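ok here's Phosphonate transport system substrate-binding protein:
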Amino acid sequence: MRTSTIVARVAASLLALAVLAGCGGTEPAPEASGPIAFAMPPGTDEEDLLAQVQTVADSIATVTGREVEVQNPADYMAVVEAVRSGFVDVALMSPFSTALAYQNGSVEPLIVWEAEQEPASTCIVRADSEVRGVADMRGRQIAFVDPGSTTGYFMPKSLLATNGLTDGTDYTSTFAGGHDSALLAMLNGTVDMACSATQILPMFREAGLLREGTYRVVAETDPIPVGVSIVANVDLDDATRQAVITELPDILMADESLAPVFGGSTTYRTEPGQEVFEPLMRVAEQAGVNLEDMR
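and the structure:
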């Protein structure tokens, strides 16, 4: 094709665009109207937790006026990838997963809850175990929950690190895939210790997973610097985004049954910046975990 022909076609295209631009201005992009894909944290198999997460999804449907489809990715990093790639529009994410995803530009945090000042994780052994404290884990095995779990990995690993124990050198570890699965591995004798979110242990007791006389608490971690977040895909339409930011928090905080979902916290911040997640980065560094390696 000759150069003059190419130039002519480009000029014609630019002229057409100019004509369209002069006919009343640019029309606003239509608001999204299809279902919202909402992802909940993985390993949410406990009946009460499932009901609470469904209530969050229903609340999103209320404030946006759109149908909400709930998804349950296999692990914490799968939630991050689903939001980043656009398969999920809005997600409820753990603190460290949010920090990682935000640092990588994968998600936009819309709401973040402040953490309660109680131990984030509780580490448990069988009642007949010789383990009496964290130092006794040298040469033994622990069940973590998931590489992206705050209470099931980052906080317990930080606790072990501050007690001079390095994963792979002083003890071995495995990922169970869920909080209940980690506890079962400990109770069955597959591992020596399991650490789980302090806030959900009462549910496991009520469900009969943790029966009196079958286990002992040997350690508790520090509180989490930051609580859970509701995040969105960076390309989420503005109407939905604004509805979640401005209307959703009040609805969620008015429902006392949802307290365990947000760690009991009633204090939150909308549209948080990078500085909010800096304390999590420091904990990760202390634990010897490189967040970039978890992409």
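+1. The chain has nine helices and eleven strands.
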